[in-house]
Amino acid sequence: MTESTSPSFDGLEVGQVVAEREVALTRDTLVRYAGASGDFNPIHYNDVIAEEVGLPGVIAHGMLTMGVGASVVEEWAGAGNVSDYQVRFTRPIPVPNPGEARVQVSAKIGALDEERRTARVDLTVEFDGAKVLGKAQAVVDCE
Amino acid sequence: MPVNADAVGRSYGPFEPYEVTRVKIREFADAVDAYSGAHRDVAVAQAEGFHDLVAPTTFAVVIAQKAEFHVVTDPEVGVDFSMVVHGEERFTHVRPLVAGDVIYTTVHIDSIKQRAGISMVTTRAELTDADGAPVSTVTSTLAVRESA
User: Do the interacting molecules here have an ipTM over 0.90?
Assistant: First the structure.
């Protein structure tokens, strides 16, 4: 007997916020993501190299921001229920040392597909009052 | 030197298969703050209908980026990796990745668009399991600035 974790389609409404979270990104977070993902581009841990290529300093991996966004959706959708997820990286997130970059993530229902019983979840991810991801959309399989 | 636009249509792989492990799933889940027990506890994952730990939504990037590495290091494509910024990313999953999966990946260069000193290089990694069944498609667009 298995218990599905996918959310119920009935009762969902476009515009409904399904999950929200504030995430603090630090150099520790970046190093941890580098190790977990295998993305060792030095712009994500070395200030000298980041500045040499014209960045304000070390920036977060875009894929870390995207991954955290997915985790916020999953918190509502359950693990393994996101069938499609896309983002555009529109602004880098500089991560100071010492200190942290606080990122606000909000997930709301953007569209509902009655036939497939899927929900499109639109993510808003903001740092310093500006959006860092564009067209951030996840498709969730519902019950 | 700009990226070689004639590289569109090239394919790379399949490479040595990637084995999805419980350890790597837990490590990745920790790194992206994915809290579900189905990423950590086999009993929880099985109770939810998976035969082993289920990977977070963007885990497939670990596999896809290994394959994309062959594109960005191909001298005939001509990407200067120090000038690369990530533009777009998309995952389309036929099913979630789970621990124990053995994944074969082929990567294709789908488009190269050039304007104002920037090349937008779009690759598509196709992930299939040991039976040859499709698992995920990972599409990635890199913005490559022209080096001086």
Answer: yes
